[in-house]
Write a structure and sequence with these properties.
This protein is mainly α. 69% of the residues lie in helices and 2% in strands. The two termini are 33 Å apart.
Length: 368
């Protein structure tokens, strides 16, 4: 690898990632002891698969991936359509089953949408950065996001769909979106949120919102998981109850403890100090991703890095927030920490793209 690229790489991003993976593996070790560590073993296998893929992605200039992003985007759309015809797992058609493993197309679609959005936004701004504020050009960007979002909602997977929206918001901000569109968007949200609640959302989604507002309305049903999660985090206090010693974790009260509520496992068994460290690591990682966007050598790198920052930001806020009762439960995994091969591979690819962009940066081109 070119020495200049190695020197420019934002190594802090990789350090934060490795620390989060390490904490996640310890939490998985504790939470899978009663299942012969099956999920831990699979996570390690996916980690081993991800490393060489990351190295390849870092070596190839990110502009190449953006150039072929229309093909990647088209393939991801086909996968999102095909997965709708699979057998439902836990009520959702979100996975392809391949032997003992499952693949989640919506995870890989995150890579496609970030690359493709950066590609078309640069094309639309070829003459002037203000071009993105032309209504029809903005509509092109919105349609590109709407297609995969609607397919993911169809599965249904509202959490992942919202992650796409978060990436879009971060990227439009970097592109210099006009304040009038921000105002209009806020107004639409105020109008559409209650409309969606009363007339669009299915009953199970409305129940999750109701339980978020008051978990005690159904403490043995829909509110059970969040109550147990809050109990687990609170029981951990400063330094935790100890690995393999958490009551909610080990006695089966916390579910699903390896995916959605892995942060509750950390809070209970490792305590506030480690749980707070996890939050701090995400803040540093996201901040460094934004810094990479500000110092990227071109708009393509800037928009791509901001999209990745948006995805990580949403996952952190939503997953950690829902385990503490601050956000509705959506089934969003905690990047690098939660069990999930598709999620781990996707997130490490996004990290590799960030490292790629940072290694080739030259000057600041970020929109003021």
């Amino acid at each position: 690898m070119n020495k200049k690229i190695l020197r420019n790489i934002e190594w802090g991003i990789l350090v934060c990632t490795l620390l989060l993976i390490g904490i996640g593996l310890i939490a998985l070790f504790s939470s899978t002891q009663n299942s012969n560590y099956d999920e831990l073993k699979k996570q390690i296998i996916w980690l081993a698969i991800s490393v060489p893929i990351m190295i390849i992605i870092i070596l190839v200039d990110y502009e190449f991936f953006n150039k072929i992003s229309p093909v990647i985007y088209a393939l991801s759309i086909l996968m999102l359509i095909a997965v709708l015809f699979t057998e439902p797992i836990n009520g959702a058609t979100s996975w392809f089953s391949i032997g003992p493993f499952t693949l989640q197309p919506s995870e890989f679609a995150k890579i496609a949408i970030v690359l493709f959005l950066a590609y078309i936004m640069v094309k639309l701004q070829k003459k002037d950065k203000e071009e993105i504020n032309k209504f029809w050009k903005l509509c092109v960007v919105l349609i590109a996001v709407a297609v995969p979002v609607l397919l993911i909602i169809k599965q249904p997977d509202y959490g992942t769909a919202l992650a796409f929206i978060s990436a879009l918001i971060f990227m439009l901000f970097a592109a210099g979106i006009s304040k009038r569109y921000i105002f209009i968007s806020i107004l639409l949200i105020v109008i559409l949120v209650p409309t969606a609640y009363f007339f669009i959302l299915p009953e199970h989604a409305k129940t999750r919102i109701d339980v978020f507002l008051n978990p005690n309305i159904d403490p043995r049903g829909a509110g059970y998981n969040i109550i147990q999660s809050k109990l687990a985090i609170g029981a951990g206090e400063a330094f935790g109850m100890g690995i393999l010693k958490g009551n909610q974790t080990q006695l089966g009260y916390l579910y699903p403890k390896t995916t959605d509520f892995i942060f509750a496992v950390i809070g209970e068994e490792m305590g506030f100090v480690v749980a707070g460290t996890v939050i701090l690591l995400y803040i540093i990682l996201i901040s460094k991703a934004v810094h990479v966007a500000k110092t990227a050598k071109n708009d393509l790198g800037s928009y791509t890095a901001m999209g990745i920052a948006g995805i990580f930001f949403f996952h952190m806020v939503e997953n950690i927030g829902m385990t503490m009762g601050l956000m509705p439960i959506t089934g969003i995994p905690l990047p690098f920490v939660s069990y999930g091969g598709s999620s781990l591979l996707t997130n490490l690819i996004l990290i590799a793209i960030l490292l790629n962009i940072s290694g080739r940066r030259q000057k600041t081109i970020f929109v003021n």
